[in-house]
Amino acid sequence: MNKGVGLVLEGGGMRGVFTCGVLDCFMDRGVMFPYGVGVSAGACNGLSFVSRQRGRAKFSNVDLLERHRYIGLKYFLRQRSIMDLKLLYHDFPMDIVPYDFDTYMNNPMCFEMVTTNCVTGEPCYIHEKRSHTHLLDAVRASSSLPYVCPIVWIDGVPMLDGGIVDSIPLERAMQMGYAHNIVVLTRNRGYRKPLNGLKVPPFVYRRYPKLRAALSGRSECYNRQLEMVEQMEDEGKVIVIRPQKPIEVDRMERDVRKLEALYEEGYRCAAEMLDSDAFKTREFIVKSCPDMMTKNA
After folding, report:
1. Which pLDDT tens digit goes with each residue over 115-154?
2. What is the CA radius of gyration of the chain?
3. Is 173 left (phi over 0), alpha (psi -120 to 50) or beta?
4. Which of 7, 23, 10, 48 is nearest to 191 (CA)?
5. CA-CA distances (angstroms) from residue 157 to 40, 59, 150, 242, 286?
6. Using an 8 Å Cβ cutoff, are 271 and 264 in contact?
């Protein structure tokens, strides 16, 4: 295994089902990484990769959604969230498809989840290998979308979705010493977020002015990261796996057929990359570990 290769997972809400396909393909091929960093949906899906539970992430994004319809305004009444947080962060990991905490804790891979510190407006990178509760709090914070999900408090610090300030944490991976990375995106090449000039009114998150500033500059920050990724890709410094064309899946998509198709595209794109001659000749190729077992959800 090349110990200098990292894995970077973008978020994107339900578009993250593309990432589920990529990670399941990696597990089927025995591909491992010494380091990974995920944000929002990328953090959620990455946890099932570290616990080696093949199919678990897809189950949560497709099968669980079809059965429970856990996205909707009705959850605001009791949970102040557009999603059923109890189902997603308690019932699912504890009872429905129990999370393999033991495998996660014993996996030598360092996996960081990105959150946004509401006080400082800066990203926070959480690597948790001690507490089950803290781990679930961290991934919930990383996925707590602004405006439609409540703030999550971790060790007395208010946190929200890491995608507010670091949607594609490639620079973090490089700072951690990983010069070569595989980056999984959930948008096609050339996509840029519209610059709407959004200014968050002072009565929204009024206690957190730096968070409001971060939210106002979110689109510009994201577009700069996309430009950096594309430039490094052209220079051969990163490998990028992304949808090949504009996708029809929304951040809060509830059409299971669209989600299934996007999962299959992710799996196919990953397989094509692993099988390509260009990948096999790269100096930072990730070697397969065929003896690593994965557990089907």
Report:
1. 999 999 999 999 999 999 999 999 999 999 999 999 999 9
2. 18
3. alpha
4. 10
5. 18, 31, 13, 33, 36
6. no
Cα 250 to Cα 223: distance, rounded to the nearest angstrom: 18
Identify the three-state secondary structure at position 135: helix
Q: How deeply is 291 buried, as exposed, middle or buried, from its count of CB atoms within 10 A (0-12, 13-18, 19+)?
A: exposed
Smallest Cα–Cα separation from 165: which of 129, 133, 205, 210?
A: 210
Distance in angstroms (rounded) separating the CA atoms of residues 228 and 274: 23
- Amino acid, single-letter form, for residue 140: R
Residue type, 266: G
Please say whether the beta carbons of 188 and 226 come within 8 A: no
Q: What is the pLDDT of residues 200-226, one digit of tens each?
A: 877 889 999 999 999 999 999 999 999
d(CA 252, CA 4) in angstroms, rounded, equals: 35
* Contact between 115 and 124 (Cβ < 8 Å): yes
For the record, the structure tokens of 211 come out as 């968070």
Q: Per DSSP, what are the bridge partners of residue 159? A: 117, 152
pTM above 0.90, yes or no: yes
CB 11 within 8 A of CB 193: no
Nearest to 8 by CA among 144, 113, 137, 108: 113
How big is the CA angle at 241 (ends 294 and 58), to the nearest 5 degrees? 40
215 by Cβ neighbours in 10 Å (0-12 / 13-18 / 19+) ranks as: buried
Under 8 Å between Cβ of 123 and 117:
yes
What residue ranges in the chain does DSSP mark as E strands? 5-9, 35-39, 110-117, 123-126, 152-154, 157-161, 180-184, 238-241
User: Is the distance from CB of 215 to CB of 146 less than 8 angstroms?
Assistant: yes
Strands 35-39 and 180-184: unpaired
Find out whether 107 and 295 touch, Cβ atoms under 8 Å.
no
d(CA 238, CA 4): 12
